[in-house]
Amino acid sequence: MTTSDVVENSQPAGHLPMGPAELAQFIDHTLLRPEATRAEIADLVATAVDLGVYAVCVSPVHLPLDVPLRADGTKVVKVTTVVGFPSGAHKTAIKVAEATQAVADGADEIDMVVDLGAAKERRFDDVRADIAAVRAVVPQPLLLKVVVESAVLSDHELIETCRAAADAGADYIKTSTGYHPAGGVTTRAVGIISGTIGGRLGLKASGGLSTAADAISMITAGASRLGMSRTAEVLDDYLADTGS
Fold this sequence. Notes:
With 244 residues, the protein is an alpha/beta fold. Helix content is 41%, strand content 15%. The N and C termini lie far apart (34 Å).
């Protein structure tokens, strides 16, 4: 799978959806609370299927997931999990081990958090090496998304971290974990990332999205995927706004 294929695997950046069903295909329906129960995860999957979203995103302890299949044997929703979450302050070998286990447990997509300390110190070669090591155990066509925690980084650090991720073979840049006290996603950060990767990678906006207006603003700024937990409310909000 080429990078251009990856971008086409969800929705085109900057594309405005025409209806709730199309908007749903931008969404990774997410539950990463550490106290999440098996029953809550099962409900997450059922809701994701009912809403028609693209993927679910869960902590690795909940894999493998029981996801319904289409007639052709493909999953109705993709399965995403996290690596080095939420701090990114893990040894590379630990991230590699997490990713290896997640792949064995049926994950279709891996969202790994970068070494933020290395990014802040502008050790971008170390950032690149950390990502490349995880990429080596996440074979295509599985997707690797790199979480850059954009609210923590200066513009220069954000740009160079995105470049390092692209060089290391990442498929997507993901803006935020949603757990850092510095904050979540902003349209400004999405714009900077979009301008840096130039459509060569996908762009997942996440961290604090709770309304249809939030979702549309991120797509307009260049996001091709959205990570959120309040998916039903956002889609209902969008339906009310558009009358679709």
